[in-house]
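so my prof wants the structure for this chain in the tokens format not the other one, which i didnt know existed until like an hour ago. anyway here's the sequence
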Amino acid sequence: MSEPESFPIEKIRVPEKKRSALNPEVVQDIAESILDIGQQDAILIRREKDHFVLVEGLHRLEACKALGERAILGRLVSAEAARERTQPSQALDAEREKMERLRKLRLEKEAVEKLAHPSRAVSEADAARRQRAHPETTMRSKPTAPSKQSRPTRSGSAPRTLSDWIKQQERSGGRY
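here's what i got, hopefully its the right format
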């Protein structure tokens, strides 16, 4: 990679694919930073005929344009290096597409299962809807249902807790 140098902004072209990733808030933040401390990182560009093509640094370029700069600090990279830098994003795009296809397949599978077992899907949906509409009537939240801790232990039954065992031993006069 070459040393940073000054390039005329008007000669730098931005590919449409890169332009779609532009975030105006980031541009404004970078422009404020450039006003405070200057441009710290050079953009990456490659030469193409009579102009340059942006490889990396869209927000820095747009921030300099917004500030009215005529030139920007950049590094000239070869076309091969530029391709290498864009390939990871292509791999990321391919991974996103793969994940989207898998999500669609999962949704289709769930839809087929619901069609195959419509009564189960309806009953599960009804149960969930009833629980949301009347949470106080669900089995878990019924105040009248006796808890395991409040049940009295029968003298002939096995104790459920250590404290029940101790009480049982005390009643029977046994030593522990």
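also thought this was worth mentioning. Helices lie at 16-19, 24-37, 58-66, 79-116, 118-133, 162-172.
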